């Protein structure tokens, strides 16, 4: 980058193109000129040259943007040096890095969604250290079926005739549509053509599967008669999609699942029910507001798909359950091999399902967090306040389930609120993220909030120490 002066205006030439910036002061220009080159800064950093260059470039670019935004940074060379040292340290750590989730979002997609139960972790360790009977039949000595225990457990838990597990719920839906409706029409309510995180859109999945989308009804009202009128000889399936991360309220209507199942049966169609998350049990009680795979199977859906790492509380996976014939068609599709689970996912998912089977769902961390009592949260919040000191206090707030689940549910409880002082909330939150341990908090009303719902007692103590260190 080179700095160009034209009168009082400052322009920056970057990547072979000039773009104008707002009129900058001579002081801004002076600070920019104090920035070292990437090579100069990288030479001062320890570790591999590749990491040093990446860290140097990242921090020089970041500091340049802050200076151009008008932030007064002094002394520039020391600030960028310190930041680059920290950045190089972060880049040298094994990834993905463990973080303390202080956001209060239980199923935080960017932070890995559901933390695993102890039994699932132990199962991962066991299968990682040795060979396993992943696709081997110990009785016959021949090839076995991958994930057979998962099928047995999930069928017993839901009442489904058959089941199949793949890499995630998007994969489950893609497989279902590809196996049952490629080259044919699929009828979907306009109110269910949703988009979830990462730009995942139902119409795009349908197109990728080879099926043709037929929209019925309106955004807020779709009746069974709309589905009936849309069915043609080219129709292969009806798709119902749960509005995972939003709700249509007010003047709204959707056809009941039982109605759709009867219509599909009479017209010889498949009914696919995409639940997104899906809740197997009513613990905690708030989960009764989410659709259950058990209910969908009982209502007559041919295929039901839902996630493993959301309200199930297990590893990333997509579960397909339902009628044997429909599951068999999915199991024979060429996509299955591309979407299958590995031994680690199978071990963790099997262990999680066994907790459901043994009525031990209170041991599943995500469910325990969602249902955490206020007394437990208050004790943890007070611990953090006492460790942080005068800058912290307790206030009432609310957490979220996250992960595209329970979008209207506020999980009320106490939180630890920290006054960031003159540094401001963004700088304190950034220092916590980059510190050791890495603490990810949320910001509200100009202050940093640590929510005890998504932390253990030990994590709360470590987070409080990190805040104290950052403030000091």
Give a structural overview.
Helix 5 (118-128) packs antiparallel against helix 14 (343-357), helix 6 (148-158) runs parallel beside helix 14 (343-357) and helix 16 packs parallel to helix 18 (457-471). This protein has helices at residues 26-33, 38-42, 49-68, 76-92, 118-128, 148-158, 169-181, 202-209, 224-230, 257-267, 293-299, 324-331, 335-339, 343-357, 365-370, 374-388, 425-434, 457-471; strands at residues 2-6, 9-14, 17-20, 99-101, 162-166, 185-189, 195-196, 200-201, 212-216, 235-241, 270-276, 303-307, 318-322, 392-399, 411-418, 438-440, 442-444, 447-450. The model is unreliable at 1-23 (pLDDT under 50). It has 3 domains: 2-92, no CATH class; 99-112 and 368-471, Alpha-Beta Complex (Aspartate Aminotransferase, domain 1), CATH 3.90.1150; 118-363, 3-Layer(aba) Sandwich (Aspartate Aminotransferase, domain 2). The strands form 5 sheets. Strands 5-13-12-11-10-6-9 form a 7-stranded mixed sheet, with helices on both faces. Strands 14-15-18-17 form a 4-stranded antiparallel sheet. A 3-stranded antiparallel sheet has the order 1-2-3, with helices on one face. The chain is of the alpha/beta class.
Class by SSE composition: alpha/beta
Count of the domains: 3
Q: Could you say which overall geometry the principal axes of the C-alpha atoms support? A: globular
CATH fold-level name of the largest domain: Aspartate Aminotransferase, domain 2
| CATH homologous superfamily assignment of the largest domain | Type I PLP-dependent aspartate aminotransferase-like (Major domain)
Total beta strand runs = 18
Contiguous low-pLDDT stretches (5 residues minimum) are 1-23
Q: Strand order of the main beta sheet, please?
A: 5-13-12-11-10-6-9
Report, as a whole number of angstroms, the end-to-end distance: 36 Å
Total helical elements:
18
Strand content: 15-25%
User: What would CATH call the class of the largest domain?
Assistant: Alpha Beta
Largest sheet properties: 7 strands, mixed
**CATH architecture heading of the largest domain:** 3-Layer(aba) Sandwich
């Amino acid at each position: 980058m080179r700095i160009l002066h034209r009168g009082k205006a400052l322009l920056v030439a970057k990547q072979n193109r000039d773009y104008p910036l707002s009129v900058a002061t001579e002081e801004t220009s002076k600070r920019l000129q104090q920035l070292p080159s990437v090579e100069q800064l990288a030479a001062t950093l320890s570790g591999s040259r590749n990491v040093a260059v990446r860290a140097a470039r990242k921090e020089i670019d970041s500091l340049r943007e802050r200076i151009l935004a008008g932030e007064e940074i002094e002394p520039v060379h020391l600030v960028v040096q310190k930041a680059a040292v920290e950045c190089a340290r972060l880049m040298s750590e094994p990834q993905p890095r463990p973080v303390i989730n202080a956001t209060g979002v239980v199923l935080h997609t960017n932070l890995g969604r559901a933390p695993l139960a102890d039994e699932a972790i132990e199962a991962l360790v066991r299968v990682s250290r040795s060979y396993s009977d992943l696709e081997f039949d110990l009785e016959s000595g021949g090839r076995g079926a991958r994930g057979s225990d998962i099928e047995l457990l999930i069928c017993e838990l839901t009442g489904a005739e058959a089941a199949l597990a793949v890499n995630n719920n998007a994969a489950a839906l893609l497989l279902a549509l590809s196996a049952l409706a490629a080259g044919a029409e699929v009828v979907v309510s306009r109110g269910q053509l949703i988009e979830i995180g990462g730009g995942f859109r139902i119409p795009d999945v349908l197109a990728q599967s080879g099926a043709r989308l037929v929209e019925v009804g309106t955004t807020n009202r779709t009746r069974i008669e709309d589905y009936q009128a849309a069915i043609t000889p080219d129709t292969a399936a009806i798709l119902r999609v749960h509005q995972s991360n939003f709700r249509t309220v007010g003047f709204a209507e959707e056809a009941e699942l039982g109605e759709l199942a009867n219509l599909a049966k009479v017209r010889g169609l498949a009914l696919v029910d995409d639940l997104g998350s899906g809740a197997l049990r009513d613990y905690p009680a708030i989960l009764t507001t989410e659709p259950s795979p058990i209910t969908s199977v009982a209502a007559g859906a041919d295929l039901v798909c839902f996630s493993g790492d959301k309200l199930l509380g297990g590893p990333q996976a997509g579960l397909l359950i339902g009628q044997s014939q429909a599951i068999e068609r999915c199991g024979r599709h060429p996509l299955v091999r591309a979407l299958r689970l590995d031994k680690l996912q199978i071990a963790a998912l099997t262990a999680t399902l066994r907790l459901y089977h043994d009525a031990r769902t209170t041991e599943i961390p995500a469910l325990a967090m969602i249902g955490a009592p206020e007394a437990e949260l208050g004790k943890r919040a007070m611990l953090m306040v006492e460790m942080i000191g005068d800058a912290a206090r307790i206030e009432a707030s609310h957490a979220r389930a996250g992960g595209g689940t329970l979008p209207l549910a506020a999980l009320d409880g106490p939180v630890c609120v920290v006054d960031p002082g003159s540094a401001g909330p963004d700088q304190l939150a950034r220092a916590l993220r980059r510190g050791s341990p890495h603490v990810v908090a949320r910001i509200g009303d100009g202050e940093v909030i640590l929510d005890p719902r998504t932390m253990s007692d030990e994590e709360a103590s470590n987070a409080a120490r990190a805040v104290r260190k950052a403030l000091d």
